[in-house]
């Protein structure tokens, strides 16, 4: 199908883009890599009066470090994030997850900001931002807001982003070297959206877990930490087999799996249990946990 008619604007500055968004609000759509917006338009699932292309705005794709945090511009392409030395050194979870995102051609155009704004429940990157305690920085003519990832994702395809706001960058704290990270997923084929994905971070001091963050992708309506599962792993060896079994047994009580579609909630829970056990066992091997 062809998209509906729309006006096309290609602002050269953020100020110009924000003025357009302020003028048109919910009648406007921001275009980043177009990997979701273009199919959405072609399927006529959205009919914006104007498409605001942010690809000419300078500095929206910068990836930088100030020693305390890594800042990734909203328009940074998936492949640029994946190959960034800052990301590979300090955010191995993000790099591991990006290996699972779609295919090379889509990763060449798709952007971090686009993936977060879309908030597809099956997407890997929203779960990573929650697990890594990232802050999403948004701008409008009213000013700048920083929203923690935990507060950003509201429901399926729904975020805290207001209609006059653009995501400008995402700030990720640099954690100390005691942290181990692992992202893995189960999908039908390499590059497909996940049936279930898991972002797992554990701070291990003298082999004992002192902090833990567990966030699933593709399982619930939106990514969130699961404290009931996290608590199970605190105070013991990360891959303590008894704790793995306790966590698997608790899954059905603490996860509300997506309904609808061709996968039953019971099957999704089964996949979650097996994925959780696999990821935790992998995390016990420091090489697996930090290497890419
Ligand atoms: P666009 O398509 O340009 O925009 C997407 C939405 O975000 C639009 O609503 C747009 O208005 C809004 N938006 C974009 N940028 C901003 C911004 N800075 N501020 C505010 N709003 C903004 N993703 C996965 O996570 N995992 C997968 O396995 C996966 N597989 C895919 C397979 C296929 C065949 C395709 C086509 C896509 C797949 N994707 C997958 C999605 C892809 O990775 C992109 O991340 C995602 O589509 C966002 O695309 P984009 O960055 O091009 O944004």
UniProtKB/TrEMBL annotation:
<feature type="domain" description="FAD-binding PCMH-type">
    <location>
        <begin position="1"/>
        <end position="177"/>
    </location>
</feature>
<dbReference type="GO" id="GO:0016491">
    <property type="term" value="F:oxidoreductase activity"/>
</dbReference>
<dbReference type="Pfam" id="PF00941">
    <property type="entry name" value="FAD_binding_5"/>
</dbReference>
<dbReference type="InterPro" id="IPR016166">
    <property type="entry name" value="FAD-bd_PCMH"/>
</dbReference>
<dbReference type="InterPro" id="IPR016167">
    <property type="entry name" value="FAD-bd_PCMH_sub1"/>
</dbReference>
<dbReference type="InterPro" id="IPR036318">
    <property type="entry name" value="FAD-bd_PCMH-like_sf"/>
</dbReference>
<dbReference type="InterPro" id="IPR016169">
    <property type="entry name" value="FAD-bd_PCMH_sub2"/>
</dbReference>
<keyword id="KW-0285">Flavoprotein</keyword>
<dbReference type="GO" id="GO:0071949">
    <property type="term" value="F:FAD binding"/>
</dbReference>
<dbReference type="InterPro" id="IPR036683">
    <property type="entry name" value="CO_DH_flav_C_dom_sf"/>
</dbReference>
<dbReference type="InterPro" id="IPR005107">
    <property type="entry name" value="CO_DH_flav_C"/>
</dbReference>
<dbReference type="InterPro" id="IPR051312">
    <property type="entry name" value="Diverse_Substr_Oxidored"/>
</dbReference>
<keyword id="KW-0274">FAD</keyword>
<dbReference type="InterPro" id="IPR002346">
    <property type="entry name" value="Mopterin_DH_FAD-bd"/>
</dbReference>
<keyword id="KW-0560">Oxidoreductase</keyword>
<dbReference type="Pfam" id="PF03450">
    <property type="entry name" value="CO_deh_flav_C"/>
</dbReference>
<protein>
    <submittedName>
        <fullName>Carbon-monoxide dehydrogenase medium subunit</fullName>
    </submittedName>
</protein>
